[in-house]
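subagent[fold] <- orchestrator: predict structure for attached chain, return tokens only, no commentary.
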Amino acid sequence: MSDASAATDLVLHQGGCHCGQVRWEIDAPAVLHTHSCNCSICNLTHYQHLIVPKERFRLVQGEEQLKRYTFGSGIAQHYFCGNCGIKSFYVPRSNPDGVSVHARCIDPATVAGIEDEPFDGQNWEQNAGALAHLSKA
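subagent[fold] -> orchestrator:
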């Protein structure tokens, strides 16, 4: 297998919240390409975005535990575990056709590496288009 195909082959990753009541799985490469955002909410939570198309995200347990939070435009749908308070995934404003999982909430056994790059969310309007391709299959 070439290095290029190893970077794009999808593996099953599992993850969830701190208490384990919310669990999900995604199909993504073993080496994750993430974005660390400096917007008001991501900066406070040190959220490390891994955006995938909705069809590559599956909530496997805990839907009844989820609490939803929106602010600003109300487009982003932030989901938190009602028990432990961890936001392990959400539907981002930049990619309403996708899901952003918090890479720090992925079980580490299937992660071969993480390549992280900064994202200037403080200037979201000018930069959001750079993320649009991430939720396309």
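orchestrator: received. Logging for downstream: Confidence is low (pLDDT under 50) at residues 1-6. Helices lie at 3-8, 40-45, 124-127.
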